[in-house]
Amino acid sequence: MGGGLSKIIPGIYVGGLAAARSQMQLEKHHITHICTVLQNTVEFSRWSKIPNRKQIVFRADDSPSEDLSKFFEDACFFIHEARVADGAVLIHCACGVSRSVTITLAYLMVVTDFSLAELFKAVQGARHCACPNHGFMQQLLDFERSGRVAMLREKLFSRFGEWPAERRKQDTDALTAAIEAQEHFILHGVYPGEEPLDGLTPSAMHAADPEGKATNPDLPAPVGKLKHTVFTVYSDDKPRSLEEFIASRCPPEDVGTKAEDK
């Protein structure tokens, strides 16, 4: 799981420990900087400093109780410094699933205008195994709501200058494409370019559509009626629906405000 590198936006890749140790992959993707997030014991016994590349190491376990948010600022400065110099950063943990994805999401929140929900969908569209644990997701939610995102963005751009419009467009285009890929997966069960499930061809799937609605012929249509996608979050070892999890994490005043807005 997570053995290879996944390009998220220009200059940012996410992967696991195996990718960080692969000179072939590092050279193929022109990686100049490495952001490592690993714990102190078994993982570090398999890790070693990669020569000829600038590195930063954050020691953290993949545990919901671990505070990754304390690393957000240093990580953002390290990642952005590399991109300003036209470098490429590999952000990695053990498998490229939780810790590295959390750091990546924090950086993207700072340098783009996308919401956390949109960015989470985009990162999953680019790296399908991306799945921060519920504690890290809570830290990202707190980061978004607290105003720290805007403060860190101001500090980042104050040091390095505003992100050029052309670079912003490249980031936006990459994230938008990844969001569309993930939405396609949610609707159809496959990503664009993948073979439909059960060997069904796109034409057969179109024929099975009971409503006969016109869809993009280049994309496989769903078989029969679309099923509602249910996401389950395991919080404190208890399975909950995504809606229940978010509601349990929202302060009472936020819930009241949302109800009034409706």
Rg is 20 Å
Indicate the proportion of strand residues: 5-15%
Number of domains: 1
User: How many angstroms does the end-to-end distance come to?
Assistant: 41 Å
**Low-confidence stretches at least 5 residues in length (pLDDT < 50)?**
199-216, 218-228, 254-262
The pLDDT mean sits at: 82
> How many beta-strand runs?
7
Give, in spatial order, the strands making up the sheet with the most strands.
1-2-5-3-4
Name of the CATH superfamily: Protein tyrosine phosphatase superfamily
What is the helix content?
40-55%
CATH-defined architecture:
Alpha-Beta Complex
CATH class: Alpha Beta
What form results from the Cα inertia axes?
Answer: globular
CATH topology: Protein-Tyrosine Phosphatase, Chain A
Region (Disordered): 198-221
Domain Tyrosine specific protein phosphatases: 69-127
Pfam family, one: DSPc
Keywords: Hydrolase, Protein phosphatase
Task: Explain what the structure shows.
GO terms for molecular function: protein serine/threonine phosphatase activity; protein tyrosine phosphatase activity. With 262 residues, the protein is an alpha/beta fold. The chain is 48% helix and 12% strand. It is built from twelve helices and seven strands. The protein has helices spanning 17-20, 23-28, 42-45, 72-84, 99-111, 116-126, 134-146, 148-160, 165-188, 202-207, 242-249, 252-261, and strands at residues 6-9, 12-15, 33-38, 54-59, 89-92, 232-235, 238-241. It is globular.
